[in-house]
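Section 5: illustrative case.
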């Protein structure tokens, strides 16, 4: 295995996807909801998502024609158990993108036999690069990073995300947030791009992050970044994180048991 080769490929692909997103971000794009696919009126998609994924997929297929692709839009039927697998989110933070908030990302990870080997998360609006390789560390704009040294919830800033469900899962998330505040955390932040949220854990900006439902393309690259930065990432009950839709908790490791005690209590089916 040559992790740096796959990282370089992921970075090239992310740049192609990011260029597509920025063209639409500058020039404007019509957003559509996914209600015809059992989505909600606030579950958005656009030509930017689709074209970004198509551009990334074409590049990866040309480079590695025998590798499997798994992604959010047209690649959702990809096999997560493939020996060689690329997991792609062509636009994470779609609602931010739709409202012209420059906080969104392209996320690409390469997995070999179910294990993450290389990953990149790119915010093309700010040209922020978060890169990691198995055994090679985590980097923000080529500078090595590591998780925070907070040792208790009372020293922590916690990030969170909300799934599109606005029923039981939303209430569970709010209940968990309320309990985190009871432990005198410094604050809660919800910035709307899970891939970057996970990288913020790796960089030490967040001491922990949780969300009760994320797809594999939301966390595939961010998972490796957290692990290589010295952090811990599991499902919300503390079990190993599968490469499938899952609840998720990421942290600096030191506060993980305290986070799991809260997130497991309020966990709902996703």
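Designed sequence:
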């Amino acid at each position: 295995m040559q992790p740096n080769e796959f990282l370089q490929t992921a970075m090239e692909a992310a740049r192609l996807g990011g260029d597509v997103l920025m063209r639409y971000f500058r020039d404007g794009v019509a957003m559509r909801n996914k209600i015809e696919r059992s989505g909600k009126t606030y579950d958005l998609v656009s030509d930017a998502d689709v074209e970004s994924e198509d551009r990334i997929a074409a590049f990866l297929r040309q480079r590695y024609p025998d590798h499997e692709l798994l992604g959010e839009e047209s690649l959702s039927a990809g096999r997560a158990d493939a020996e060689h697998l690329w997991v792609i989110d062509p636009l994470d933070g779609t609602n931010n993108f739709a409202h012209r908030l420059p906080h969104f990302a392209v996320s690409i990870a390469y997995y070999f036999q179910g294990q993450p080997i290389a990953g990149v998360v790119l915010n093309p609006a700010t040209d922020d690069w978060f890169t990691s390789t198995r055994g090679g560390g985590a980097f923000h704009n080529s500078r090595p990073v590591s998780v925070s040294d907070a040792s208790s919830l009372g020293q922590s800033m916690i990030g969170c995300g909300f799934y599109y469900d606005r029923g039981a899962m939303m209430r569970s998330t709010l209940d968990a947030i309320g309990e985190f505040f009871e432990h005198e955390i410094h604050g809660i932040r919800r910035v709307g791009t899970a891939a970057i949220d996970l990288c913020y854990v790796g960089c030490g900006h967040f001491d922990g992050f949780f969300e009760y439902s994320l797809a594999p393309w939301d966390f595939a690259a961010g998972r490796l970044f957290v692990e290589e930065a010295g952090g811990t990432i599991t499902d919300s009950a503390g079990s190993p994180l599968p490469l499938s839709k899952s609840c998720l908790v990421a942290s600096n490791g030191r506060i993980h048991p305290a986070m799991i005690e809260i997130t497991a209590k309020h966990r709902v089916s996703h």
